[in-house]
Amino acid sequence: MKRQLYCRTLTIAGSDSGGGAGIQADLKTFAALGCYGMSVITAITAQNTVGVSGIHPVPVEMIVRQMEAVFTDLGTDAVKIGMLHSAEVIRAVAACLAQHQVRNVVLDPVMVAKSGDALLREDALQALRQYLLPQVDLITPNLPETQVLVGRPVTTVAQMEAAGEELLERGCQAVLVKGGHLSGDQVVDLLWMKGQPEPLRLESARIPTNNSHGTGCTLSSAIAACLAQGQSLEKAVQGAREYLIGALSSGKDYTLGQGHGPVHHFYAWWS
Question: Would you give the distance in Å from CA 30 to the centre of its chain?
Answer without folding.
Answer: 12
